[in-house]
Amino acid sequence: MPYVDRQNRICGFLDIEDNENSGKFLRRYFILDTQANCLLWYMDNPQNLAVGAGAVGSLQLTYISKVSIATPKQKPKTPFCFVINALSQRYFLQANDQKDLKDWVEALNQASKITVPKAGTVPLATEVLKNLTAPPTLEKKPQVAYKTEIIGGVVVQTPISQNGGDGQEGCEPGTHAFLRRSQSYIPTSGCRPSTGPPLIKSGYCVKQGNVRKSWKRRFFALDDFTICYFKCEQDREPLRTIPLKDVLKTHECLVKSGDLLMRDNLFEIITTSRTFYVQADSPEDMHSWIEGIGAAVQALKCHPREPSFSRSISLTRPGSSTLTSAPNSILSRRRPPAEEKRGLCKAPSVASSWQPWTPVPQAEEKPLSVEHAPEDSLFMPNPGESTATGVLASSRVRHRSEPQHPKEKPFVFNLDDENIRTSDV
């Protein structure tokens, strides 16, 4: 939406066709300056650009003959499109919605009207000649401190303020060359996949840094529990996450000083540890963010709850899988009791299993009989030991690495028995 800034200029984002009949529209920040009698467009809000970054295009208002809504025949696939006719050239621009389209067309037509000056306002010819003959004086440019860095083998000079911090207009070069068309919207299914609760509001805003106090454009996303901002819309990991339970207040920033004095549509998010200064693209967008954050904080206070997606994220971390534990639990529940008991016999208990450093118990135990012990089991009974009934009398069986328990009879066979085999002797 176009808005009026502190210098009484009409500002806002529009999409302009790169070349006539090319069909390629680029996102630009437009400033309609009636005092300078021109329409300017920049890569982004000049407050967010580097010092010295000028307009990428301009048009004198006196050259504009007509501003009208584009017909479907002119731009059949471009909604909310209007055309500026100037000097036998046409400029096609695209607004965000119908109201934005109507406001821009009315503002441009009003600014480009030819007005007849009143009597006494026309300058005298002598004054005009005097101004023309006067030699132009070179304006003395203010001295600006620069910080020189070597990035990737290239010398980069960044303007800084005298207090040692970043410049007020510090910004990454080339960051805003490809701005998204929609600056604030509820994302659809084709956007960045959401891994948490559904988003209440999302869009691009300009945020002040905490350390260097530089202003950079970030993609903000608001859900039921947090406010996150990303470097761009396609990023999956946020640069920072602000829990809504830590937000104390969100309102328009009315008390401004220093760099904040020239910022329009500025609001602040006050938390327990820090105050975030965020600049929206229009007053409507600013009030929408303030109302959305306030409503989410109030809903969280009235109905406190934990995010339900935290456990699902922990279960699907890299290196683990939710499918590995679920089938095992299902199979263990469906397994027959005998089979389950046999599986448990193979896994020694940590509390009761024998270890090499454990002393051999002196009390005699009755282990599992040979006929009931599996042949391939690691837990074997002592040779020759068996109960008369063949019933397991002990709670655990001896592992093959465990020493045998001392016996009263050193030889377990009776030599007078006629049924004894020679191999047993």
How would you describe this structure to a colleague?
The chain contains 6 helices and 18 strands. It is an alpha+beta fold. The chain folds into 3 domains: 3-114, PH-domain like, CATH 2.30.29.30; 184-311, Pleckstrin-homology domain (PH domain)/Phosphotyrosine-binding domain (PTB) (PH-domain like), CATH 2.30.29; 353-425, no CATH class. The model is unreliable at 162-191, 309-351, 365-371 and 384-394 (pLDDT under 50). Strand 13 and strand 14 (226-230) form a beta hairpin.
Task: Using brief descriptors, characterize the structure shown.
about 425 residues; alpha+beta; fibronectin binding; membrane; 8-stranded antiparallel β-sheet; PH-domain like; lipid binding; laminin binding
Oligomeric state of shown chains: single chain
Main β-sheet, in a few words? 8 strands, antiparallel
Give the radius of gyration.
Answer: 40 Å
Query: Roughly what is the average pLDDT, rounded to an integer?
Result: 71
CATH superfamily of the largest domain: Pleckstrin-homology domain (PH domain)/Phosphotyrosine-binding domain (PTB)
Tally of DSSP β-strands: 18
Could you state the order of secondary-structure elements as H and E?
EEEEEEEEHHEEEEEEEEEEHHHH
Secondary structure class reads alpha+beta
Distance between the first and last residues' Cα:
104 Å
CATH fold field value of the largest domain: PH-domain like
Instruction: Note the beta-strand portion.
Output: 15-25%
Poorly predicted ranges (pLDDT <50, ≥5 residues)? 162-191, 309-351, 365-371, 384-394
Number of helical regions: 6
GO cellular component, one term: nucleus
Domain PH: 7-113, 198-298
Biased composition (Basic and acidic residues): 363-375, 400-410
Membrane topology: Peripheral membrane protein
